[in-house]
Amino acid sequence: MKKKKPELLAPVGSFKCLATAVSAGCDAVFFGLQEFNMRSRAQNFKLSDLPKIKEICGPVKKYLTLNTIIYDEELKEVDRIIKKAKKDVDAIICSDIAVMMLCKKYKVPFHISTQCSVSNSETAKFYKKLGARRIVLARELSLAQIKKITKIIPVEVFVHGAMCVAVSGRCFTSQFLLGESANRGKCVQPCRRYYIVKDDRGNELKVTNHHIFSAKDLCALPYINELKKAGVSAFKIEGRNREPEYVDVVVRAYREAIDNDLGSVETAKLLEELKKVFNKGFSSGFLFGKPSANDFSNVEHNNATQTKRFIGKVTHYYSKIGVAEIKINAEDLALGEEILVVGKRTPLIHKKIESMEINNEKIERAEKGQEVGIKLPLCRTNDEVYKIIKN
Questions:
Q1: 331-373 confidence digits (pLDDT tens)
Q2: So what CATH class is 7-201+209-295?
Q3: Residue 264 DSSP label
Q4: Whole-number Cα distances in Å, 69 to 3, 36, 247, 362
Q5: What is the pLDDT of residues 204-219, one digit of tens each?
Q6: Which CATH fold topology does 306-390 show?
Q7: pTM of the full structure
Q8: Burial letters for 135-155: b for 16+ Cβ neighbours within 10 Å, e otherwise?
């Protein structure tokens, strides 16, 4: 029997990212509501958005995250959400046993969140007996450890994105310093900042890398075949706080890696693509042993090789000729430059400008305040337009 291809899960924190993820080729999306999810700072969705999400996704599976810790006074609201969400989602990702029990009550499939830090076979057996369909494993596992657990229950592993310097979800630094709990999805990531180390006499310790708590991002793209052979059922991309261009680039790269047996040249090209969007440097995480000093980032914010800058909005789209009229609200736009177009229902468009017109006359540069016509795939009024800036 032919082995089933692993599922590719894309992170979506907004409708812009949702449309882009589906267009980029994911098999499933995971997203949170404005309540009870581990990315409360993402734009997130409302319960009333679920039918629209279902419509946009089509055959793409939809996983709702309800994976924070839950208090007694919140149980009625969680009950209401699960009951209402049942018809519009394929599964709920959860960590609190009360949520699991409510899923069972309403016959909603549930997956065990990485917040449960499942890292051994006995715990996997427990959740399987409880009724879980899948486990999102702890991020602190080696390839050999992952392989053992795949023999018990379908498992999902993170393959790309931010890594927590602590045991995922168990860090209290944000709570202690700023009163924002990571276990309630509100981590402000103080670990990403740079630190000056001092002793009790005020002497400063000079360190080579001031970012002593900031881990590099996980990038398992070169090891996709090993993860397939280990029996992993689903590959998950972290990033519900990220922008549509991140979702687009990362999903497309992993789609290609999953679907094809890549050689070293093809892998290197995809890694260069991944470097274009948000990252803090790349690491293999725990896949081949514990991380070393080389797995800590030396940047505070972003190591991407390119960024974007807002320049305007689409004011009209002429579908018969495939031309968008764009009002340039910020800086100039010239031939040869690259743009991104994105909207709530428009999957991300990446286009190199080869031709522009104003009043049917070809131009080489559009200036701030002008409306310019550019040939583009289908986009919509009020879609945002950005210019790509090479770093």
A1: 899 999 999 999 999 999 999 999 999 999 999 999 999 999 9
A2: alpha beta
A3: H
A4: 36, 8, 27, 58
A5: 876 666 777 888 999 9
A6: Elongation Factor Tu (Ef-tu); domain 3 (2.40.30)
A7: 0.91
A8: bbbbbbbebebbbebbeebbb
